[in-house]
Design brief:
The complex is a heterodimer. By secondary structure, chain A is mainly alpha-helical. Helix content of chain A is 74%, strand content 0%. The chains are: A mainly alpha, B mainly alpha. Chains A and B meet through helix 4, helix 5, helix 9 and helix 11 of A and helix 1, helix 6, helix 7, helix 8 and helix 12 of B.
């Protein structure tokens, strides 16, 4: 029970620090605003945003269609509301899987050391060194990607490697601290030490890295989808851009089709990045003095 | 020396591991996917009007890759063909060899990327140095850092789309796509070279701008760190002009990590801007890959991916091997 109170206290001080960090709050507000607008927008859209032929094609923005329509006669704004959710689902799923798997591998490698470390580290290094995009393209082109869950699965193949390397380095430095020696002397088992002694120190830090993983996942997702290897049966921000390029929207002057997904992706990435920088400053207070 | 040899062996081992994994991925993935690739190939060929001769082709493929034998034999056959530079044939442009298509595309990618990488590096380093030096005193240089941060978040192919829209559609200064004017035959004439340069300006600009931020930020933080060093204080105390302190003292010392960065970036050239080429229909590796994906041309996809992975890994390995010889401060990665 004492530990629970301790965690609560930690959580409270974390919240206080977060609300005092300007970068985090700006990013967080922007992110929440994007989410709320897209959900409210979806709720207010009375028709299926993906059904073709509902409206006149290639119509520039007008009161009924604030962002116009695309070459298949679909409302762009309605598509955008729908896509934001889909892209965020992919981003957060991949980041969650990547952080969890990475944390487990990093903990095992860092804590046990020796042969376990050697094998896990070599494995991790290979996934970091190999150029990711071509391999993802190869896999995505062989599998017929139809749903966002398949996109998320494919991205997860690489999402764990970077967190694993970083968690390992953190565990290596934590392992030598006195409180871990104390825990070991007092007869705690390995798993108990990992979960009760090391985990609390890692949680904040993992949180800071999680936002970074989401940014990575959303941007990589957009890149793969831009090649036409995204989910064919649904719409995401990257797929919107792909279809716009596929129908030569840029060369036909249909700016209301290709510009909104680009701007939205950049806004989402910026908001998450600001949150990441803010969290990073809280976890590593030394960063704050370095300007910029 | 001994530690260098140990480091070399370690690097070689990890390089071998990466190459092996890349080969395995390239070998296994098409084989575990549903559907027989050969049947797909024949189906496509008959769509294109190949009425007879397909049986012979199947036999040729089976013999070449030992497809009637077990997986291990198949893998050995695969490696054997690979060593002979045989990446198979394109389905869509049959009987063009995949290796020939890659040989045609590679120079465009390497040419565009090597020039833009060096320009962006030089520009970013110089601006970063000035910004790091003057950052606290001048508002203008101080504001550059947040702008660079935002630019770094914009994916490079999105920046390319925006540039095409601005300078090829809205204000029609530059050509929209291609590496040279339609209908021209590549020659070594001055006229043709100027045409190529003219077509490459927009793709080059998009790559330069999107990577500039990174070089700028890393140089800037290096200069800021150098500013506190004793030898800078000493130079200031001696009364040296500021310009000389910045360029002859601070910049020179901050340059080494930048050179490492440049070496790594040059190693990544082949995979660096695949998506930019698609925006501009630039006939390099990215465009080849994109067309192969659109046409479901598996042998080309596999071939391009393999070449990209192998060239990036080889370049990284070479840099790893050379680097400690240049910079003795590298600790050979021993922890």
């Amino acid at each position: 029970m004492a530990r629970l109170a301790e965690l609560k206290l930690m959580f409270k001080s974390m919240l206080r620090e977060l609300s005092g960090n300007r970068k985090f709050m700006v990013g967080f507000t922007l992110f929440i605003a994007i989410v709320i607008v897209s959900y409210v927008g979806r709720a207010l859209t009375p028709y299926d945003p993906l059904a073709a032929g509902m409206f006149p094609i290639d119509h520039p923005p007008c009161p009924e269609h604030p962002l116009g329509t695309d070459s298949l006669g679909r409302d762009v704004l309605a598509q955008l509301f729908f896509s934001v959710e889909q892209s965020l689902i992919v981003g957060f799923t991949v980041a969650t899987i990547g952080t969890l798997v990475g944390a487990v591998i990093g903990f095992l490698a860092g804590y046990y050391g020796g042969v376990v470390d050697l094998i896990l580290r070599s494995f991790t290094d290979i996934f970091i060194v190999i150029p990711m995009l071509p391999i993802l393209i190869l896999i995505a082109s062989m599998v017929r990607v139809v749903s966002i869950w398949m996109t998320a699965t494919i991205l997860s193949i690489f999402a764990w490697a970077w967190p694993a390397r970083q968690v390992r380095a953190q565990v290596l430095s934590l392992k030598e601290r006195d409180f871990v020696y104390m825990a070991r002397l007092s007869g705690m088992g390995s798993f108990e030490i990992i979960f009760r002694e090391l985990m609390p120190h890692m949680l904040q830090w993992l949180g800071a890295n999680f936002t970074n993983s989401v940014v990575w996942a959303i941007l990589t997702e957009a890149g793969i989808e831009f090649l036409g290897l995204g989910p064919q049966k649904t719409m995401t921000l990257g797929m919107m851009l792909y279809w716009a390029m596929y129908h030569a929207a840029v060369f036909r002057g249909l700016w209301w089709w290709w510009a909104p997904p680009i701007i939205t992706i950049i806004l989402i990435a910026t908001s998450l990045f600001l949150m990441h920088v803010g969290l990073d400053e809280i976890v590593n207070p030394r960063l704050r003095t370095r300007g910029g | 020396m001994v530690s260098y040899l140990r480091y070399l062996a370690q690097r070689l081992l990890s390089f071998g591991g990466v190459v092996l994994v890349a080969l395995l991925i390239n070998f296994i993935i098409p084989r575990i996917m549903p559907g027989d690739p050969i049947t797909t190939i024949i189906m496509r060929l008959s769509f294109q009007g190949a009425m007879y001769g397909t049986e012979e082709l199947v036999e040729e493929y089976k013999r070449m890759f030992g497809l009637d034998k077990d997986w291990f034999t198949q893998f050995i056959c695969y490696l054997r063909e690979l060593l002979h530079g045989n990446l198979g044939y394109s389905i869509v442009n049959f009987p063009t060899k995949v290796s020939d298509m890659i040989a045609k595309a590679l120079p465009w990618t390497i040419g565009l990327l090597s020039v833009t990488t060096v320009i962006s590096w030089a520009l970013g380093s110089v601006i970063g140095a000035i910004a790091g030096w003057k950052g606290e005193k001048s508002k203008f240089w101080g504001y550059l850092a947040p702008i660079a941060l935002v630019f770094q978040i914009i994916p490079y192919f999105m920046l390319a789309i925006i540039l095409v829209f601005l300078f090829a559609y809205l204000i029609q200064i530059f050509p929209m796509s291609g590496a040279y004017s339609v209908g021209r035959i590549p020659t070594m004439s001055l006229d043709f070279i100027l045409d190529v340069i003219w077509h490459s300006i927009l793709p080059a600009l998009s790559i330069i701008i999107s990577s500039l931020g990174w070089w700028f930020l890393s140089m800037r933080s290096m200069i800021i760190m150098t500013k506190g060093e004793d030898y800078i204080l000493m130079a200031e105390a001696k009364g040296l002009p500021e310009r000389e302190i910045l360029w002859r003292y601070a910049f020179r010392n901050a340059l080494l990590p930048q050179v490492t960065g440049l070496a790594l970036a040059l190693g990544n050239i082949v995979s660096g801007a695949l998506l930019t080429e698609i925006v501009f229909a630039y006939p390099g590796m990215g465009w080849l890959l994109y067309n192969a994906i659109v046409n479901v041309d598996y042998p080309v996809i596999q071939g391009v991916v393999l070449i990209i992975v192998l060239s990036v890994c080889t370049a990284t390995f070479i840099i790893d091997v050379i680097y400690p010889l240049i910079d003795p401060r590298v600790r050979y990665g021993v922890e």
